[in-house]
User: What shape does this take?
Amino acid sequence: MQHSAADSALNDFHWPRGQGTCVPYAVFTDQAIFEREQARIYQGPTWHFLALADEIAQPGAFKSTFIGTTPVVVTRTRDGELAGWVNRCAHRGALVCREPRGNARMHRCVYHQWTYDQRGQLRGVPFQKGLNEKAGMPADFNVAEHNLPPVRVETCHGLVFGSLSDATPDLRSYIGPQMLPWVERIFHKPVEYLGCTRQYAKSNWKLYYENVKDPYHASLLHLFHTTFNIYRSNMLGRSIADSRHGLHSLITSTPLDDTETAGAYKKEGISTYEEGLKLADPSLLATRPEFAEQTSNNIHTLFPSTVIQQIHNTLAVRQVLPKSAAEFELVFHFFGYADDDDELRAMRLKQANLAGPAGYISMEDTAATELVQRGISSAEHGSGSYIAMGDEIQDQGSSLISEHMIRSFWDGYRELMGWAD
Amino acid sequence: MDEQTLYFRIERLFARYCACIDEDELDQWPDLFTEDGCYQMVARENYTHGYPIPLVLLDSRGMMQDRVHSLKNANIFAAHRYRHAQSGVRITARDDDEISVSSSYIVVQTLDDGVTELYQAGSYYDRLVDNGDTLMFRERLVIYDTSRVQTLLATPV
Assistant: This one.
């Protein structure tokens, strides 16, 4: 790992201590910190969602995507295995694969037609022996020494992950015993990819990661359910941070009965409560139970770039792709189960109205992160946020009015960034 | 009906559609659709590969009214205004029951800071029916090229 002067200066980065957690705003705006994250986190010992196995089911099928800012390709080889490589020609660094997805036996860089196989191994260099006994590569040139940098690829129940580091433990260990059952709950049978939607935010990727670890905002920022009198207060909630490092997390809510709680919100004086609004066409809310515990919400983060979502019958894996200190892309990979009947499949498509870039209960999230980014972009040196809601010991992970998962996240982040106590 | 008259009536419907959205008359937007009409937005990258997931799928006039009510009463987003530019209107099929029309659109968005940006480009694939007085949408399928939605999509395109 190379260390720039700016990165070395960050070794002494000051993280304030006090009640709750103060997150210095510089972590959302500073370019040197962004680069340190790319080196220590994204190119470091972490696993990143790349695709659903169903997206690249056929031999030769490939998908180009990113691990952090590094362009990578994941592909199904002709013998049915998965392979990954950094999408950067060994010759002059051009993108080799220029399509988002497709099917190819070989991958050829268009610049000088250096050609790689499905595993990223260099198979051909035009004019390697020169032309008419002139020019040509040096006599000791060996194609086998110029393969594309490999990306480690592992799968877990139909999810394909990639890692750029040899130090990353195997995928199941990385997900860990506390979180793996929740992955298995959603991916308990073969899934079918239904397509993706993309959203681009002018904000730091960690503001989004805070958002998906923050059940406190859910009923305050997203007012669709309360406005249409379809919110239910009697919920069993879970808010769990991975006890090993705090970086992965799970939020679930499970309705216990049909009690409406618009009244409770009215009592609290939440300004946007509107009395009497009803959906003209409630077919949007037609759902079908499909899990032993029918959670209405399951938001499961696998640090640093993966969020598994189940909201009623909409299933998706959200991929968080940092682009700069102040920009990230969010890609929702929607899926159903391979054995869905027509009615259930239609429900999943209709419920896509709820979650996604235009979703009734999700559209505000990226906008909220942008409001923070705009608010802090000129913040004075050393200032930061104040995150203190909820107590994980007292509520034992059952309260949804809590920010304890965000605090745990920052503990784990500090460790990875070399800023632990 | 001769083709010239039909084109005139289609253009009149499209102008009404753009006015509903661009001139802040969104309440009237669902009325341009039949009772069982369908408004759907699908990214071109999904459409091309046959993946069915929509960005927005409103398969009744009631669902469209709900979208409008939600935007006005529930959802939080920056104040914005669209301007549509629509071109290349083609009648691609026609029978006694309905008329199929395709066209291209560009939508620019202006926020409160006074900056106008290109927000989305794409195609409309429409199925229109004649109710006697006017044409109505039985289906408007919006295939958007700009797969990367900037921040969020609140107002229909």
